[in-house]
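Weekly modeling sync, notes
Attendees: S.R. (lead), two postdocs, one rotation student

Agenda item 3: backlog of single-chain predictions. S.R. asked that every request posted to the team notebook include the full sequence so nobody has to chase files. The rotation student volunteered to paste the first one in as an example of the format we agreed on. Action items at the bottom.

Example entry:
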Amino acid sequence: MMGDWLRHRAVLPDILGRVDAEKVDFAPWEGALTLGKLAVHMVTSTHFFLTAIQTGEFTRAESPAFTTMDDVKRIVQEYTDASKKVYESLTDDQLNEILDASFMGMKAPKLAFLSAMKDHEVHHKGQMFVYARMAGATEMPFFISRG
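Predicted structure, as returned to the notebook:
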């Protein structure tokens, strides 16, 4: 499962690298997340899910601040590294435990939250493809990493 998630995650830095740096604040409509905020939301939310699966508690941390596309790329890498470490630490016993996420209307084995986490990230990655195209990117990567 971790490999599947990483094949999706590996595409995010590729997408960000195809967008001009000054488009970090691009938003396709008024009130939408900016391109930079969407990328940061993706990686922090995944870490939020993984930490909850590890600890049994949902605690949302503040989203890291950024001003440049390089900041966003750094945050993506840092959260990817941290999330991978948490993911690697999860045991089968942990994944079979029940986790109560009443705020999501969900009470299920932690394994189900891994699936929801990946679905959430894939959903937003699809948005990133659209954002990048609207921001002027002409060539886009395949939807998962082939490497």
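Discussion: group reviewed the output briefly. Residues 53 and 110 are 6 Å apart (CA to CA).
Action items: rotation student to repeat for the remaining queue; S.R. to check formatting next week.
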